[in-house]
Amino acid sequence: MQPSSRVALRTINCSYVPQQDRVLVTINPGEQDMWACWVTRRLIWALFERGRQLLATTSILAKKAPAGARDELVSFERDAAIASTANAMTPTAAGVLQESARSAELLVRITIKPDKHRFHLELVAESCQGVAGVLARDQLQRVFLMLEMEANRAQWFERRENLPEAGKERARSTQH
Predict the structure, then answer these.
(1) Which CA distances in Å does 175 have to 92, 109, 125, 150?
(2) Phi and psi, residue 32, nearest 5°
């Protein structure tokens, strides 16, 4: 399924909306081509499981390190990425987020494809509308952190720990 219309990703905002129990992801907030989607907890869980694997297996540092040091290097790489993208973080006006929430669609697919030192990111909603962009490794790690912060705000990770084993397996195997 290819998106019928694609917005170019330039900026992104993530915010948990308790009334929806979803994360509102706004692309290019306040711009003419602003686009927004709702991300469910199951999609975020799947993204974190697969995203962490993707970052670990595509890390040049981790590939060169002995097996026992890889996790520590991946963590160091993440911390360095967060520091290098800190200056790009700016607040988004509440009015802009309210406007984006009114037009947000349910996200059904996230695709991340590695390409050397960059990642192609595509978000597709139920309507086949979507957004696509190319992110540097540190930018992708920043997006993951933003989503993680909102999932923590929603206490989704704590809720997942309290699921019975069958519920955890269902959450893992859900395809979006």
Answers:
(1) 31, 8, 14, 21
(2) -60, -35
Query: How many Å apart are CA 169 and CA 123, to the nearest integer?
Result: 24
pLDDT class for 61, splitting at 50, 70, 90? low
Convert 156-173 to b/e letters by CB count within 10 Å (16 or more is b): beeebeeeeeeeeeeeee
Q: Which tokens hold the place of 146?
A: 């933003």
CB-based burial label for 75 (10 Å; 0-12, 13-18, 19+): exposed
Both tokens of residue 110? 């996230």
pTM, rounded to two decimals: 0.81
The strand pair at 129-136 and 35-39 is best described as: unpaired
Measured between alpha carbons, how far is residue 148 from residues 62, 106, 144, 164 in Å? 22, 19, 6, 22
